[in-house]
């Protein structure tokens, strides 16, 4: 008997039935009978099944029995799986057996693993057999020996001469053997042959093998020339190798090795592991979509070939059934034989994954051994099918038995949306557990700079300074694909005659580029594109005949909006597919918000005063500044979609200009844009963990996330403050003296305004910032300039700050301070009750006034401490004392009586 063959034998239980539950019940009963026969060969009788499970891996059976001579008890666990049994299951049984033996030192333990244990588990089992009296392990080889000695099984030599995939088949008609007969030339399976010990295999058994095991191949009885008619003629799976790009900015394809940029440390580390390994293994390359996984594996393939080895990168989107895995393995082995990296053994077989692994174990490798690299790219599509995923999982575990430098690579996205039902999380995690996992990081500043230089080379000229800066910011998330998409767009626009100055003013983002892709298509092309997107990847045969053979599909292929992968059609990128299907773009905007709302508000007021559009020189003259400052003021507004991109003009978007409430329409537009921005996502994440996030904290996170943007730490604080002010304008956060916090329904402070009102340059100080005297005097002066003088210069600034916080003053189109309304006045004087209503909208003021009314003699320091706690601020004692004084003064202005204290009369 050939141990090399029998050691890989599988045990399969086949049964007929009218329902799934009936078939399962019959299979369970048959497996119990089979194990009873096996135990009987060892002298055990009266077996009692304790637990029977049918899992996705195979059959599990727990049995107890007693020896017919010694009466010693046996506990037995049986695992009949499609792949080798791993360490955790054996370890669990050993623990169970050790506990049982502590109570009864005569008890025996038997662990049955079919087809066998993994090498790691076998090593542990051998150690346990040496150290634990009464423990024994049985695999396929030992079981076949025992059953053949007991005349239960026939000899393997009675089967086909050239065979693979030995299988013990258990049925209600008896136990038979089966194996694949191989074609002598291709070494692939040509048919299944089955035989039994004493008679012809019953016809029902042949039918069971045809239905559940043969995968369409004919099934014959040993010694019979004619076989059954195949159920179907199996076709070889379509294997498509990944192709690299032909230029730096061909974004539809991964970068070919000659256009590969960056990742030097990671690539070199992986390449060394692939070249120098002695035992086969697998790696998993994980990253988000568009981060360059495919480009990296193409680079690794090139490195392996330079080292004298062979490599193939396969597109997994054509994988539809489990035969894809052995077909891919055969492809790389044939290539290795052609390149004289290895020689096939006489018993070579390509009928199944198991037979291929055995072939590699017996192959003769050149000395020194040269590496083999097989990469499965776009692997997330495999997860749609649990059976297919299981075959890949088995590959990851089986190859570890090969003592040669073979590496299998799996690349899949970490941001793929998992299916809620049937998603093979366990199988996916098994692949990761069996592999070296490498997490791909986004590009950093040096990689983006290298791409910028290559873009300049393609343009034949230096990039405009502003355009270069915009590109660096747009790509601050470090996505290679996105930069290539931007680069291709710029090259095409420049070829069309668009200047770099005009390109710098465009609000470039992924959504805009997708819209540009669609804008050039005809209605019929858009319809076909969306049809493909809804089912992608879709087999060409599943498309309507007119679509599959028409000029429209050819046009989309020519424009590279769809790509052909074997016999399937897919959209060129999954993010574009999501955009076509639901209008969403998973990539957050990543331009850096540099300027606060103050300048933008000043510019907007000029634009509105001019009817919605003004030339840059005129705007500069009205604001008494330069064209560069106007460009800076307009920059964020263009990004937010408030201003349109026009050369040398500043124009408000028509729908905003025509809105009955322009301010709220602009606020909604800004809010929508900010919610798409990565900075907002970071801020929101931080605020879920902390009540208050300081500006320096936020700045530090921005600097870490936007690694492609080179800026000093002070600059990041400025950018963080500016973005926070825009978020507050949009009603997304509330700014405090010490940072930002979440908006709540109880927040009653008015939001800032761009079309009117003074928006502070820096984070607003807490209210109140001074005694109310100057503020009340300014209110009266604005109401009646002739009758009331303006506050002194020192008091004017604090008055404006406090009144702006209260929403009582705005600035008009000429940047003059004006009253926002007359609600606080009564008969030409400030009415205390109305003033109190407005003041109590400020955070902490309602509570402070209530405390004073309850205890009019409350000291300024006590008030200041309470106010500090209400705001979550960090103040020195002097600041708390000043705040308490100001609160008492504003309370009196609002009609609340305060009581002078006999000591500490400092207010």
CATH architecture verdict of the largest domain: 3-Layer(aba) Sandwich
Radius of gyration: 38 Å
Annotation, overall tally of beta strands: 30
Number of helices: 35
Which percent band covers the strand fraction?
Answer: 15-25%
Span between termini: 105 Å
| Residues in helices, as a percent range | 40-55%
Quote the average pLDDT.
86
Largest sheet: 5 strands, mixed
Low-confidence stretches: 417-422, 758-763, 901-907
Question: In one word, what is the shape?
Answer: elongated
What key phrases describe this protein's structure?
17% strand; five-stranded mixed β-sheet; endonuclease activity; alpha/beta; 30 strands; disordered C terminus; endonuclease; Restrct_endonuc_IV_Mrr; 6 domains; nuclease; Rossmann fold; Restriction endonuclease
Q: How would you characterize the overall build of this protein?
A:
The protein is 45% helix and 17% strand. The chain is an alpha/beta fold and 907 residues long. It has a 5-stranded mixed β-sheet. The chain is elongated and about 125 Å long. The chain starts with a helix and ends in a 14-residue tail after the last helix.
């Amino acid at each position: 008997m050939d141990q090399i063959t029998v050691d890989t034998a599988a045990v399969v239980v086949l049964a007929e039935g009218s329902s799934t539950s009936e078939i399962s019940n019959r299979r369970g009963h048959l497996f119990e009978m089979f194990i009873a026969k096996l135990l009987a060969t060892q002298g055990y009788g009266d077996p009692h099944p304790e637990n029977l499970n049918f899992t996705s891996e195979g059959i599990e059976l727990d049995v107890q029995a007693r020896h017919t001579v010694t009466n010693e008890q046996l506990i037995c666990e049986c695992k009949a799986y499609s792949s080798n049994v791993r360490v955790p299951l054996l370890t669990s049984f050993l623990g169970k057996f050790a506990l049982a033996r502590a109570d009864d030192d005569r008890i025996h333990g038997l662990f049955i693993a079919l087809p066998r244990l993994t090498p790691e588990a076998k090593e542990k089992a051998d150690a346990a057999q040496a150290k634990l009296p009464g423990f024994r392990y049985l695999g396929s080889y030992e079981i076949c020996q025992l059953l053949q000695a007991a005349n239960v099984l026939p000899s393997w030599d009675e089967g086909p001469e050239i065979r693979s995939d030995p299988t013990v088949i258990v049925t209600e008609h008896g136990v038979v053997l089966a194996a694949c007969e191989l074609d002598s030339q291709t070494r692939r399976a040509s048919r299944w042959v089955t035989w039994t010990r004493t008679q012809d295999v019953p016809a029902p058994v042949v039918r069971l093998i045809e239905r559940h095991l043969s995968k369409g191949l004919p099934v014959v009885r040993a010694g019979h020339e004619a076989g059954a008619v195949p159920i179907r003629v199996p076709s070889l799976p379509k294997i498509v190798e990944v192709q690299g790009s032909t230029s730096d900015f061909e974004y539809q394809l991964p970068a070919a090795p000659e256009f590969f940029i960056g990742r030097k440390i990671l690539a070199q580390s992986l390449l060394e592991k692939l070249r120098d390994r002695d035992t086969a293994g697998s790696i998993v390359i994980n990253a988000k979509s568009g981060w360059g996984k495919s480009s990296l594996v193409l680079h690794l393939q090139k490195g392996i070939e330079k080292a004298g080895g062979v490599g193939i990168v396969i597109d997994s989107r054509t994988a539809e059934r489990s035969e894809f895995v052995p077909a891919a393995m055969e492809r790389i082995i044939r290539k290795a034989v052609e390149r004289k990296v290895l020689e096939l053994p006489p018993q070579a077989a390509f009928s199944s994954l198991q037979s291929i692994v055995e072939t590699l174990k017996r192959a003769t490798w050149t000395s020194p051994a040269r590496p083999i690299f097989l990469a499965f790219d776009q692997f997330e599509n495999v997860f749609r099918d649990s059976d297919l995923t299981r075959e890949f999982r088995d590959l990851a575990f089986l190859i570890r038995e090969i003592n040669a430098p073979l590496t299998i690579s799996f690349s899949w996205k970490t941001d793929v949306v998992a299916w809620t039902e049937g998603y093979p999380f366990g199988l996916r995690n098994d692949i990761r557990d069996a592999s070296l996992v490498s997490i791909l990081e986004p590009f950093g500043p040096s990689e983006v700079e290298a791409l910028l230089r290559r873009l300049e080379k393609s343009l034949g000229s230096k990039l405009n300074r502003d355009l270069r800066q915009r590109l660096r910011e747009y790509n601050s998330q470090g996505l290679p694909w996105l930069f290539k998409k931007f680069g291709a767009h710029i090259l095409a626009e420049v070829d069309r005659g668009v200047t770099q100055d005009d390109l710098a003013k465009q609000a470039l983002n992924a959504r805009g580029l997708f819209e540009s892709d669609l804008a050039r298509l005809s209605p019929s092309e858009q319809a076909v594109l969306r049809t493909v997107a809804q089912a992608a990847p879709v087999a060409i045969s599943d498309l309507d005949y007119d679509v599959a053979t028409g000029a429209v599909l050819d046009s989309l292929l020519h424009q590279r909006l769809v790509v052909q992968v074997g016999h399937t059609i897919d959209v060129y990128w999954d993010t574009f597919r999501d955009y076509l299907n639901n209008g969403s773009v998973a990539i957050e905007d990543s331009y850096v918000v540099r300027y606060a709302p103050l300048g933008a508000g000043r510019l907007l007021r000029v634009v509105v005063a001019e009817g919605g559009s003004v030339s840059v020189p005129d705007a500069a003259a009205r604001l008494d500044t330069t064209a560069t400052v106007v460009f800076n003021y307009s920059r964020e507004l263009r990004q937010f979609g408030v201003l349109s991109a026009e050369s040398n003009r500043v124009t408000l978007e028509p729908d905003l200009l025509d809105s009955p409430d322009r301010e709220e329409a602009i606020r909604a537009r800004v809010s929508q844009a900010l919610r798409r921005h990565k900075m907002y996502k970071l801020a929101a994440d931080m605020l879920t963990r902390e009540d208050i996030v300081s500006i320096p904290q936020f700045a530090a996170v921005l600097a870490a996330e936007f690694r492609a943007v080179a800026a000093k730490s002070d600059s990041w604080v400025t950018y963080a403050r500016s973005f926070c002010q825009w978020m507050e304008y949009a009603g997304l956060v509330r700014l405090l003296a010490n940072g930002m916090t979440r908006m709540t329904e109880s927040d009653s402070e008015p939001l800032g305004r761009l079309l009117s009102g003074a928006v502070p340059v820096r984070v607003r100080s807490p209210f109140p910032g001074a005694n109310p005297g100057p503020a009340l005097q300014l209110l009266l002066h604005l109401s009646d300039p002739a009758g009331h003088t303006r506050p002194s210069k020192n008091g004017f600034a604090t008055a404006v700050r406090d009144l702006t916080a209260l929403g009582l003053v705005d600035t008009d189109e000429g940047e003059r301070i004006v009253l926002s309304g007359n609600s606080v006045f009564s008969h030409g004087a400030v009415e205390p009750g109305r003033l109190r209503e407005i003041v109590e909208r400020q955070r902490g003021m309602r509570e402070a006034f209530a405390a004073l009314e309850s205890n009019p003699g409350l000291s300024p320091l006590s008030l200041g401490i309470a106010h500090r706690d209400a705001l979550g601020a960090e103040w020195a004692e002097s600041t708390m004392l000043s705040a308490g004084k100001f609160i008492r003064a504003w309370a009196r202005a609002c009609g609340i009586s305060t009581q002078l204290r006999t000591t500490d009369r400092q207010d």
